[in-house]
Specification:
Two copies of one chain form a homodimer. The first copy, chain A, is α/β, with parallel strands linked by helices. Helix content of chain A is about 40%, strand content about 20%. Chain A has 15 helices and 16 strands. Chain A has an eight-stranded parallel beta barrel with strand order 4-5-6-10-11-12-13-14, surrounded by five helices. Chain A has a three-stranded antiparallel β-sheet with strand order 1-2-3. A three-stranded antiparallel β-sheet of chain A has the order 7-8-9. In chain A, helix 9 links the parallel strand 12 and strand 13. The longest helix of chain A is centred in the middle third of the chain and has 27 residues. The first copy, chain A, is globular. The first copy, chain A, starts with a strand and ends in a 7-residue tail after the last helix. Chains A and B meet through helix 13 and helix 14 of A and helix 13 and helix 14 of B.
Chain lengths: ~375, ~375
């Protein structure tokens, strides 16, 4: 259940009640693809860095260790020892970006596993069954994510099929939720808006999936090749057609700047591998802008990454030490960098919420869209 | 200052007072070669797993990030945020095992860095200067570690030179400790017994270095190729000549069994990369014996690695989850496995100390030398 607490322009401050606890929005979900965030991050660490929602992946967990195994062990929450909300991606994006030898039919997709080449079939029903076995809080609809740009006719056809798949997802999840012994019988379904970069297809798609009365709506198929401004424009195009009483989730986005811009356009949920992926290459986010800790100028720097930051890396270690660890390819370097970046992203959305609560989001927007894109050179 | 609290046979329960706190012996030192234990382990984690002494490496830290840099940042304790004792290996072993194009003279060793091939010279004075820059609690003498077996004449010649080097180490460290601005002016020096597998050379060497009145004595050049029984016999050969009022350190040893056998022969200090190296391959130590968590039989096992264990891995995660993480090559798998193994080793020496305190080491020895070598198949 979503409750809209306050608005400032299009920006929304809300609360999303789930069976695993209430999520304060806007929220950034922390991506733990294979039931852990890359960089040696445990569920306990996620608590430390202020994570509200963990995001895992249907495709990856189906391949390894297998969703039947996770179900047998009591579901994904128990498996990874995380009791707050989990959102599971449907596997659609991964089937279209990682797997090879893909063949799409009305039924679903046949493809080869990127791990061992094994032939696998996944359609709306299979994705729902896997997600039901995982028992996540929120299941995502199984969709086709087309590259940007793609030909109009193909996007139209794909978008139509994705809507038919969505109807099948809803039916299958309803059935699964009603079965005895389902891990999480309160599992919710978010639909996904597609339509490439074509405003008319996006709007048509959104209008039609809005009618299905789902628990939340995502904008998918963005940040996959198009210009950033195109993405912002498309959010503005679709937003008026998204139900106001449901959370909106911009999938796979993005930089701190993208998140602030997304919130300004009415988005409530975000997720991205950026904080962990960038961290592993020494690219860190701070309240003064971005820094690459590998830079020579930090070699003898006794200060924390970000003086005001309360993360475990900043509270205990210097730039010089973390830089050394990354240069020496020591895992601890990556772990500390990832902890810092996740903390930053979670704090970013916390500060956005504070600003919204105080009616000062415009001020926040003006200040931080200016600062956060800069490079820290001190 | 070493205080012998109690003896049971040759086994010793003692206390070693240092400027960074008192070490309860027997003790297992946790190896953090490059100022971190491999597997994403921080100084805070070392506290959690009950580490008393951290061990870092002169050779590695000299090459990267450089001991001058660490000195500038206040020494190794400050650099890695660890305030308890640190022992630094002298670099001797690494120069002889990792570096290439080695040339040994009376002065020291010229060699090529294993990182970038840079030509480097290290002799007793250089090793002491580096360790003084690091400011460790205990510096190890710079020695030559010969492979086992090596020809008698070579071992004799090498052992003689190592003694001459030791005298130079003592003089140089005394000088460094007396300088103003030395990171740790109370830095102690442990001498290292060498002599290959030749009892007469071992005894001669030990008698002569004992006369130097150093703060502790190590047995080096074991567990480098010889049979385990040969190692045990050589410890028994040398032990009577080691000063009873100084701690004895068996370098680079070993399995839990080796440690119990070492304690039974009068050894106080141990170190080994085994707990972290084995962990990374899924080889775990438990109070019921060894297990490889990669084994299929653990795939659906909801139990912790070791039911009675209080480590962060066992308190929070199942065998099935940790196995999954290692199979998926997720860093968290290695981190949890390393945390478990380090905790086990630290608890092993804690239990040895308890047994000695209670006058029950023989009982402990009989029970655990039987169990700990076995395989856990449940």
């Amino acid at each position: 259940m979503f409750r809209l607490i306050r608005k400032e322009g299009s920006a929304r401050r809300g609360e999303f009640v789930t069976v695993h606890g209430t999520v304060q929005t806007p929220v950034f979900m922390n991506v733990g693809t294979s039931a852990t965030v890359k960089g040696g991050i445990s569920a306990l660490d996620l608590r430390t860095v202020g994570c509200q929602v963990e995001l895992s992946n249907t495709y990856h967990l189906h391949l390894r260790p297998g969703d039947e195994l996770i179900r047998q062990l009591g579901g994904l929450h128990k498996f990874m020892n995380w009791d707050r909300p989990i959102l599971t991606d449907s596997g659609g994006f991964q089937v279209f970006s990682l797997a090879s030898l893909r063949k799409i039919t009305e039924e679903g997709v046949r493809f080869a596993s990127h791990i061992d080449g094994r032939r696998i079939f996944m359609g709306p029903e299979e994705s729902m069954r896997i997600q039901s076995n995982l028992g996540s809080t929120i299941a995502m609809a199984f969709d086709e994510c087309v590259a940007n740009p793609s030909p109009y006719d193909y996007v139209k056809e794909s978008s139509e099929r994705t809507i038919r798949w969505l109807v099948r997802c809803r039916a299958e999840l309803d059935r699964l939720n009603s079965l005895e012994g389902t891990v999480n019988p309160h599992q919710m379904l978010f639909g996904i808006n597609q339509g490439g970069t074509y405003p008319d297809l996006r709007i048509d798609n959104m209008q039609r999936i809005a009618e299905l009365g789902l628990e939340g709506y995502a904008i998918g198929g963005l940040a996959v090749g198009e210009e950033t401004q195109v993405m912002y424009d498309l959010i503005e195009t679709v937003e008026p057609y998204m139900p106001a009483d449901r959370p909106r989730y911009l999938m796979g986005v993005g930089t701190p700047l993208n998140i602030i811009e997304g919130v300004a356009r009415g988005v409530d949920f975000f997720d991205c591998v950026m904080p962990s992926r960038n961290a592993r290459h020494g690219n860190l986010f701070t309240w003064h802008g971005k820094m690459n800790i590998g830079n020579e100028r930090f070699a003898e720097d006794p200060r924390p990454i970000d003086e005001g930051c309360g993360c475990p890396a900043c509270r205990n270690h210097s730039r010089a030490y973390i830089r050394h660890l990354l240069k020496a390819e020591e895992m601890l370097g990556m772990r500390l960098a990832v902890l810092h970046n996740l903390y930053f992203y979670n704090e970013l959305t916390a500060k956005i919420r504070e600003a919204l609560d105080a009616g000062k989001f415009t001020e926040f927007y003006d200040k931080y869209t200016r600062i956060l894109g800069e490079r820290v050179d001190d």
